[in-house]
Design a protein that fits this description.
By secondary structure, this protein is of the alpha+beta class. The chain has helices at 10-19, 33-49, 66-71, 97-113, 251-256, 327-332; strands at 5-6, 22-28, 55-61, 79-84, 87-93, 145-146, 157-159, 194-195, 202-220, 236-243, 261-264, 276-280, 289-299, 307-308, 310-320. It folds into two domains: 5-132, 3-Layer(aba) Sandwich (Glutaredoxin); 145-320, PITH domain (Jelly Rolls), CATH 2.60.120.470. 19% of the residues lie in helices and 29% in strands.
């Protein structure tokens, strides 16, 4: 009996990602010959290696699930993606049976050797070294962890982004920003950061897969210099945070809504090496929250473009959101 889970909706996909430490995804199309050729190999790996809650195999039809395919910039079929703790680890383009077999079997070995409920020891078979949390621009406060993986990346809503740069998901990449010397770029074909478009303001809506207790917000911003040496982008200098919103706020709406916390950043706020500001939050105001809106009110200087390379959320995660009838998908598929 097949263990492979056929994804029926973006919400279903989010549920599977959040309920399995490792998830392998086959993006395919019914008309794709190579997809059909490699399908039996994928099914065999799924039957042999699936472990409920630890290692899941899924299939996404790019024609019936266009939103998911667009979210992950799927441009070739088949494309196989590996997710760890809900975040992309690597992708394999094409029907490369040897690469798929080797990568998945190594993941299964790592999953078997890691303690139940732990993400330690899950080295990426496509990179050397590193941890499942990836690059970080600042150390974590004692007693708290990186909980960025709890962001529901399928339902992000960012306003006033310049489309020539990375999309909303870019700032949650686990890789080192390319401007700090990382090999390659986090988002294929795009620069791995976001910039504002018409002015310095940005609105970032981040729903979570579980309730959160946020302690610290880590923002990495590496301003761009033009050929003449003049800065063409700036770092955020004024932020307003809003919690437990069901959708993003309009810029006019934000001006009329009381912020959960207002933050002012100065030149001294940014680490000289990593370009990261470690912003401690008023912890009592960020208990059991289901979403976060970051309103970039202004950037430093007179430049009308602001830039963000990475965002990390630090704190604790609570119970996962109830998904209603979507839980039945797991039961039907043997999850």
């Amino acid at each position: 009996m097949s263990q492979t889970i056929t994804i029926d909706s973006p919400a279903h996909f989010t549920t599977i990602l959040s309920s399995n430490r490792i998830c392998v995804v086959d993006f395919y199309a019914d008309w794709c010959g190579p997809c059909k050729a490699i399908a039996p190999i994928y099914e065999q790996l799924s039957a042999q290696l699936s472990r409920p809650g630890t290692l899941a195999f899924t299939k996404v039809n790019v024609d019936s699930q266009k939103q998911i395919a667009q979210t992950y910039n799927i441009t070739a079929m088949p494309t196989f993606m590996v997710f760890k703790s809900g975040r992309e680890s690597k992708r394999i383009k094409g029907a490369d049976m040897k690469a798929l077999d080797a990568a998945v079997k190594q993941l299964a070995q790592e999953a078997s050797s890691a303690p139940s409920g732990s993400t330690s020891g899950l080295e990426d078979p496509f990179t050397t070294g590193g941890s499942s949390k990836g690059w970080a621009g600042a150390s974590l406060p004692r007693g708290y962890g990186d909980v960025t993986e709890a962001v529901d990346q399928l339902n992000l809503d960012f306003l006033n982004l310049d489309s020539e740069f990375g999309g909303a998901r870019t700032i949650f990449e686990t890789t080192k920003p390319s401007s700090l010397g990382a090999k390659g770029k986090s988002v294929e074909g795009k620069k791995d950061w976001i910039e504002s478009d018409t002015d310095a303001q940005m609105m970032l809506f981040m729903p979570f897969q579980s309730t959160m207790k946020l302690h610290t917000l880590q923002i990495t911003s590496l301003p761009t210099k033009g050929e003449d040496g003049e800065m063409t982008t700036s770092r955020p200098s004024a932020l307003q945070l809003y919690t437990n919103r069901s959708h993003t706020l309009g810029f006019d709406e934000a001006d009329d809504e009381p912020a959960t916390q207002k933050i002012e950043l100065s030149e001294d706020s940014w680490d000289a090496t990593t370009g990261t500001a470690n912003v401690e939050l008023r912890f009592v105001k960020f208990q059991n929250i289901s979403s976060l809106v970051i309103f970039v009110v202004d950037g430093d200087g007179e430049i009308d473009k602001t830039r963000i390379d990475r965002i990390r959320l630090v704190g604790d995660t609570g119970e996962k959101k109830a998904m209603g009838k979507l839980e039945k998908f797991g039961e039907e598929q043997g999850e």
